[in-house]
Amino acid sequence: MEHITFIGTGVMGSSMAGHLLSAGYPVTVYTRTKSKAEPILQQGGRWADSVQAAVTGADYVITMVGYPQDVESLYLAPDGIIALAKPGAMLIDMTTSSPKLAIRIAAAAKERGLEALDAPVSGGDVGARNATLSIMVGGSEAAFTRAKPLFEKLGKTIVLQGGPGSGQHTKMCNQIAIASNMMGVVEALSYGLAAGLDPRVMLSSIESGAAGSWSLSNLVPRMLDGNVKPGFYIKHFIKDMGIALESARELGLTLPGLIQAEALYRKLAALDLKALQDLAHELGKAHYRGVTEPAIPADAQSGADLGTQALYLLYLARRL
Q1: For residue 264, is pLDDT > 90?
Q2: Taking the chain, what is the end-to-end CA distance rounded to the nearest angstrom?
Q3: Contact 168, 138 (CB under 8 A)
Q4: Distance between CA atoms of 89 and 300, rounded to whole angstroms?
């Protein structure tokens, strides 16, 4: 079978690489912290000590890293993926990144006889584990057709949105919708608690009606359980919102809901570990009906290291 290199095995990348291994593909992995790749290596994945070693000879190179600057360095550096990939290789960036950067990467890849797709995903850690991700693809139809068998091992909704950059633009639409929705979800929870409702009973009614959303059904239970571990990091969500705001300005748009959501998340991200622990203890003493005292992960250095569902901390503590 064709050989796959997977670069970036974080919260979502690890599960995604694992699905490709389970499907029988030979998979080589590289990540800056080797320990994060251990589950893949135990499953039979091969380890590469460098990006250069990982890319050499690969038929597909898939990247799932943190920030646009990481993507740019990986692909466009003089000794990066595009310079080293073998002719005919398929390059697939599944990071949520800049649409403009995706267009640059596709153009540079084409000059070297390579095919490139931008294919960001939605569905969080749950979607990655269950291979039910929504995959939004930008690139040529021929490249999409070639890569689709791989995408089908990772997700359920797989759509070619248009040419290079279209996948990233679609992901921006996704993140814009989530950002304002998250404020609505937490405000509904806050209101229900203030009104004396049992939040789980309230949730059972509204999640099946017009208010229903993925965030409502999947993240409110985590809030009630005091689970603020990252299925998706706040620091990465802030990055995504920043890309969306920049792209919106370039399109001549003002997005007030996104602006407000980003401001709230930046406020939460700025809290240090001690402030988060104090906040969690404060909420524990408040005896909100059905809400467990939050357990702040020991490896969190600030609010940026929590999951996006942690936005409820600001609301319940009335720190807005």
Answers
A1: yes
A2: 54
A3: yes
A4: 38
pLDDT bin (cut points 50, 70, 90) of residue 32 is confident
Task: Name the one residue in this structure whose structure tokens are 């000059």.
Answer: 111
* Axis-axis angle for helices 166-194, 99-111 (nearest 10): 150
**Tokens 């689709």 correspond to what residue?**
148
Q: What is the pTM of this model?
A: 0.93
In this prediction, residue 188 carries a pLDDT of: 98
HEC string of the chain equals CCCEEEECCCCCHHHHHHHHHHCCCCEEEECCCHHHHHHHHHCCCEECCCHHHHHCCCCEEEECCCCHHHHHHHHHCCCCHHHHCCCCCEEEECCCCCHHHHHHHHHHHHHCCCEEEECCEECHHHHHHHCCEEEEEECCHHHHHHHHHHHCCCEEEEEEEECCCHHHHHHHHHHHHHHHHHHHHHHHHHHHHHCCCCHHHHHHHHCCCCCCCHHHHHHHHHHHCCECCCCCEHHHHHHHHHHHHHHHHHCCCCCHHHHHHHHHHHHHHCCEHHHHHHHHHHHHHHCCCCCCCCECCCCCCEHHHCEHHHHHHHHHCCCC
Beta-bridged to residue 5, according to DSSP, are 28, 61
Q: What is the pLDDT of residues 162-183, one digit of tens each?
A: 999 999 999 999 999 999 999 9
pLDDT category at 198 given cuts 50, 70, 90 is very high
Calculate mean pLDDT across residues 214-231. Answer: 96
Q: Is residue 216 within 8 Å of 185, Cβ to Cβ?
A: yes
The amino acid that residue 222 corresponds to is R
142 by Cβ neighbours in 10 Å (0-12 / 13-18 / 19+) ranks as exposed
110, 156, 171, 285: which is the annotated catalytic residue?
A: 171
Q: Are 230 and 305 in contact (CB under 8 A)?
A: yes
Mutual angle of helices 68-76 and 99-111, in 10-degree steps = 10
The answer to whether 153 is a known catalytic residue is no
User: What pLDDT score does 11 carry?
Assistant: 83
